[in-house]
Amino acid sequence: MEDRIVTSKALLAIFLPILVLDIAQGMASLIYLIPISEVISPVLYAICYVVLAYWGVKLLSEKVIKLSLQECRIDKPHIEIKWLTCAIVLPIAVMTILLCTPGEFVKNDSKATHAIGIIITAVFVYGIGPGIVEEIIFRGLIMKALEKRWGKRVAILIPSIIFGLVHAIGANLHLIDLLMLLVGGTSVGIMFSLIVYKSGSVWNSAIVHGIWNIIMIGNIFHVGTSYNKASIFSYKLLSHSFLLTGGAFGVEVSIVAILGYLSVIALIQYSMKKKQRLNEQLERTVH
Predict the structure, then answer these.
(1) Distances (CA, A) of 215 to 90, 130, 165, 200, 209
(2) Which CA distances in Å does 99 have to 105, 121, 184, 216, 237?
(3) What is the DSSP string of 158-220?
(4) Exposed site from 47, 145, 250, 275, fewest CB < 10 Å?
(5) Looking at residue 2, what is its pLDDT?
(6) pLDDT score recorded for residue 142
(7) In whole angstroms, what is the distance from residue 239 CA to residue 181 CA?
(8) Predicted local confidence at residue 5, as pLDDT
(9) What is the mean pLDDT of the chain?
(10) Digit-coded pLDDT (tens) for 135-179
(11) Is the pLDDT of residue 1 over 70?
(12) Residue 2 falls within a domain, yes or no?
C-alpha cells in the first residue's frame, strides 16, 4: 500500500502552494516596472512566473511535504498528441457554438505592432504561465498530497472546488455568478485532474489549460456580453441568459463551456473503464 501522509501535511499542501503561486505572480509582475518593449515584457514575465513557481513547488514538495516531483507527476515535459488535439478542439468547438448565437462582430483598428503584443501576451501571460503554474500546483502537488491522505476521489474533487473558488477572488460576483463559477471551475478542474490521471503527467493538462486560455481569454478573439476594445476581434453576445453568457465571470463558465468540460470528462471515464475491463479480461485469461 502506498505510504500515506498525515493530515497536517495534507492541509499544508493545500494552502502553501497557493501562497507560492501568489508570491511568484507578484514577483514576476515586477518585470512590468522595467521600461522595456510590450513584446518582450510578457515573455520575461511568463518565464519568471514559471521558474519561481516551479522552484517554490519543488521546495515545498521535497522539503515540507516529503514528496518528489516525480510522485507529483511533475516529470520531464512530454505532450501526447491526443491531449494536444483535445487542447485545440475543445476551445474552438466552444467558441464556434457561441459564435453561432446572436451577436455583433467588431474588428478593432489595432496596429500590427499592437496586435503582435496582444498575441504574445495571450500566449505567454494567459497561456504558458497559468497553464504550467496552476497545473503543477493544483494537479501536481495539491492533488498528490490529498491522494496520499484521503484517496483519489477527494484528490480530484477538493482541488477542483478550490480551483474554482480561487478565481472568484477579486471578482465582483453576485450569488448566481458565484454558483456558475463554482460549477464551471469545479468541472474544468475535474477535467484537468482526469487528464493527469489518464496520462500520468501534469504537462498534458497544462497544454489543454494553456491553449484554452489563449483562445478563450487571450483577447485575440473576445466573446462576451460587452464590446472589448482591448482585443483584436470582439463578438458581443446579444443574449441575456446567464446560462449562455456565463454571467459576470464570462463564457468560460457558460453552459456551452461546461458541456464541453463534461464531454471530455465522459470520454476519459469511458476510456479508463474500457482499459480496466480489458485488463480484467487479460487477468482472467492468464489465470
Answers:
(1) 10, 14, 22, 25, 10
(2) 9, 23, 20, 12, 8
(3) HHHHHHHHHTTTT----HHHHHHHHHHHHHHHHHHHHHHHHHS-HHHHHHHHHHHHHHHHSSS
(4) 275
(5) 54
(6) 97
(7) 19
(8) 87
(9) 94
(10) 999 999 999 999 999 999 999 999 999 999 999 987 888 999 999
(11) no
(12) no
- Which residue has 519543488 as its cell numbers? 58
In a domain, 180, yes or no: yes
Total tally of structural domains belonging to the chain? 1
Query: Mean pLDDT across the stretch 76-97?
Result: 96
Residue 110: the pLDDT is 72
For the chain, helix, strand, coil in percent to 5 are 70, 5, 25
The dihedral built from the CA positions of residue 85, 247, 122 and 46, taken in this order, carries a sign that is negative
Is the pLDDT at 55 greater than 80? The verdict is: yes
* The pairing of beta strand 233-237 with beta strand 103-107: antiparallel
Distance CA 10, CA 145 (A): 6
The domain of 104 spans 7-286
- Is this structure's pTM higher than 0.85? yes
Q: Would you say residue 189 lies in a domain?
A: yes
Which of 23, 21, 3 minimizes the C-alpha distance to 65? 3
| Percentage of residues in the chain having pLDDT higher than 70 | 99
DSSP state of 128: I
Residues in Cβ contact with 29 at an 8 Å cutoff, skipping those fewer than 6 apart: 45
User: Which amino acid is residue 109, in one-letter code?
Assistant: D
The Cβ of residue 260 has, within 10 Å, a number of other Cβ atoms equal to 22
In a domain, 172, yes or no: yes
Q: Which amino acid is at 98?
A: L
